[in-house]
Task: structure prediction
Amino acid sequence: NSFCTLLAAMALSVEFAIADGLNNALVELRTNLSKYRGIVVIVDKETLTSGSDLFVASENLDADFAQLRAGLAGKEAALIALSVDGRLTLVTFTPQDIKPRQRMIYAASSSRLRDHAKIVGDTHISAVDELTPKLFGHKESDRVALRSEAEVQKDKIAEMQAKDLKDGPQRAHAMHSMSTTLSGDALAATKAAIGGESTAAVLAIRDGAIVVDGSVAKDQPLESVEVPADEPRFVVLRRDQRTVLAYIVPDGCKPKVRMQYATTKASLVSELKKNSIDVDRSVECDSAAALPRKIELTFTAPVEDGGADAEAEAPAKKAFMKGPRMFMPGQ
Result:
């Protein structure tokens, strides 16, 4: 029986399509590995499609994996694209009693998904309860080491807030409840960027207000954006008829400065909306050099299946056979 399965697998030459919804989710997952834990993927009529929503990452890795296991409930087989240790890996779930045809289909589709999403690591499980952090060599005591950069900074900010409250409640309250306004020059620079008069507007926080820190001329590429090594910046630009707000947070930023910008982001979006500017995309990266690639990944797929907006522009490709269909065990 296993020999027949091997022969059938060698004969299978289906080009599995990637559903647009799944493609968008994979782009979101790959560009925000610290925000999301993963997604369950299934095969439906020779098309790879989402078997769940994106699972948001938390500080509790065990709880995250429990949610992923719950996402496998009722599925005879599945692929799980997940973020562990800051890298994207793939888990193939095929039970021992699965039909040979289904086992073969998921073995072939896992290769397709790895190539499409540029996934490096992969592993296999035959039971749902095998999907735990231990699968990647970690124990509960390792959870702190597994925390993302965002989680580490969150803890630092919490510690700083506690210190502020201890040293002076009034000072802490003033800092965290301060209203941040958008200066006239910042608004003008933003409108110029989304109107095509410049490539991008760079905004900073000064004395409780969001002001212009620089701009990229219309004839200059996005790579011309300049950001200091120890302070975040907001960058507003227009791409594919959509307004993008980029939040650049260099690794050298102090927690207090990082917190100031993080808590101001929502205020900036609100101020822009008051001036009839809707933010369609929001991205985050750790350097100006990484921004162009981050934007590219947000709007384009890793391969031929379309970009982040492909679902609204074109239907999923139909699966086709590269060669004649052959009989497979269990068909």
In short: Residues 1-13, 140-150, 164-178, 301-331 have pLDDT under 50 and may be disordered. DSSP finds eleven helices and 15 strands in the chain.
